[in-house]
Amino acid sequence: GRVQRGQCISMLSSQHLPATRQAPSSSRSSGRAAPATGRVQRVTGRRSTCVVFASSQISSNDFKNGLNVEVDGVPWRVLEFLHVKPGKGSAFVRTRMKNYLTGGTVERTFRAGELVDIPDLVRRQVQYTYSDGDSYVFMDNDTFEETRLERGDWANFLLEGAVCDMLSFNGKVLSVDPPSFVDLTVVECPPNVKGNTASGGGHKPATLETGAIVMVPLFIESGSKVKVDTRTGTYLSKA
């Protein structure tokens, strides 16, 4: 049946567990942020798989957009960050973060090199099946269990049938991570001007089939298919 968060954690000590990977303490060589301590563990049940992110910490020097952190027992998502090294005083990292529980955003400053907790999260794959008003319905393809979520920013680039990662914290569903890259059709944008080419400069707003608006090059027309980075909401190329 469905692999619950509690089941995942209880299975971690089982002899039937697959190999556990110890996360590296530093990611500078690969360019990817990694916890300073802790483990990333994958648990596979008979019909479904989930990933448990065990308690760990990360240096503020390794912050990146989309990183999940835990501050004062609350899970947050880093939306923006900036490393600041003033002429006088100690370096610090200025961030804008979203509270997963309330949906609110705040600006917060961390000391350079400060260790910050990473929350215990459970991530499982689900499929977006349909929307009902502002509710989005996702289905676990193994258990066929449905989960409803109120529309969030993650819905801006989501098409029916898309496979996503659903994030849970202490048994509560927090959010959905859509695919990092999607191909979407432009349904409305200002007309192309003769002479505009892919090598030309300038951008214009375009409305996509999901309702999201992104800035695209001037040569893009209605009906064009474009590739978008859902993490930043930016145009990448023609699809």
Topology:
Elements: H1 5-11, E1 21-22, E2 39-44, E3 49-53, E4 56-59, E5 68-71, E6 74-84, E7 92-99, E8 105-111, E9 115-118, E10 121-132, E11 135-139, E12 146-150, E13 163-169, E14 172-177, E15 181-188, E16 203-208, E17 213-217, E18 225-229, E19 234-238
Question: What's this entry about, in short?
Answer:
With 239 residues, the protein is mostly beta strands. 3% of the residues lie in helices and 48% in strands.
User: Whole-number average pLDDT?
Assistant: 77
Cα-based radius of gyration, to the nearest Å: 21 Å
Overall geometric form: flat
Strand content: over 45%
Structural class: mainly beta
Distance between the termini: 39 Å
Task: Give a quick account of the main beta sheet: strands, pairing sense, barrel closure.
Answer: 8 strands, antiparallel
The secondary-structure element order is HEEEEEEEEEEEEEEEEEEE
Provide a count of the helices: 1
Describe the structure.
- With 239 residues, this protein is mostly beta strands.
- Helices cover 3% and strands 48% of the residues.
- It contains one helix and 19 strands.
- The strands form four sheets. Strands 1, 2, 3, 10, 11, 12, 13 and 14 form an eight-stranded antiparallel sheet that branches.
- Strand 18 and strand 19 form a beta hairpin.
- The longest helix is centred in the first third of the chain and has 7 residues.
- The protein is flat.
